[in-house]
Amino acid sequence: MDINQNSFQFLFATTIKALFKQTAKNFEENGLMITPEQNFILKILSQEDSIQSDLADIMKKDKSAVMRHIDQLENLGLVVRVNDSIDRRKKHIVITEDGSEMLKKCEEIINQNTHKNLKNISDEDLAIFKSVLIKLKENAEK
């Protein structure tokens, strides 16, 4: 199989994978035993409590994958499940104080990585890149 390593899809996929691996490695090196995806869940929950299906929709992941992440975060004491006051079948996922602290530590590492990774990239190039990403996402969702 001939793979064009300069193709858009190959470059995009391998860049995303490299960024995730970098983040996961830095989290582990700093004793933060969560994944980048679990960090994203904490980030969402820091803005508002949510139910599992809402998280799955936001993350564009299946509900069972999100449930596994939530289970792990709950086992670490970073989130709790709270019964809905109206519909007892619904469980709200709420970030704990420990979860908020973990999120702060993760954000410090992500900010360091972002600073390192954006080295030698102009503000103009970054703005164009973000604009293209937005258009790609919009086109893919049509």
Walk me through this protein's architecture.
With 142 residues, the protein is mainly α. It has a single domain (8-140), classed as Winged helix-like DNA-binding domain superfamily/Winged helix DNA-binding domain (Arc Repressor Mutant, subunit A, Orthogonal Bundle), CATH 1.10.10.10. Helix content is 66%, strand content 8%. The chain has helices at 8-29, 36-47, 52-59, 63-75, 97-117, 123-140; strands at residues 50-51, 79-83, 91-95. A three-stranded antiparallel β-sheet has the order 1-3-2. The mean pLDDT is 92.
Report the biggest beta sheet as strand number plus sense, adding barrel if it closes: 3 strands, antiparallel
Name the CATH homologous superfamily. Winged helix-like DNA-binding domain superfamily/Winged helix DNA-binding domain
Number of strands: 3
Spell out the helices and strands N to C.
HHEHHEEHH
Order of strands in the sheet with the most strands? Answer: 1-3-2
Radius of gyration, whole Å = 18 Å
**What is the terminal separation in angstroms?**
31 Å
Any low-confidence stretches, pLDDT <50, length ≥5?
none
Give the amount of beta strand, in percent: 5-15%
Structural class, from helix and strand content?
A: mainly alpha
Q: What overall geometry do the principal axes of the alpha carbons give?
A: globular
CATH domain fold name? Arc Repressor Mutant, subunit A
Mean pLDDT: 92
In total, the number of domains comes to 1
Count up the helices.
6
Supply the CATH architecture: Orthogonal Bundle
Task: Give the proportion of residues in helices.
Answer: 55-70%
The CATH class name reads Mainly Alpha
Keywords: DNA-binding, Transcription, Transcription regulation
InterPro entries: ArsR-like_HTH, HTH_MarR-typ, Tscrpt_reg_MarR-type_CS, WH-like_DNA-bd_sf, WH_DNA-bd_sf
Domain HTH marR-type: 1-138
Protein name: MarR family transcriptional regulator
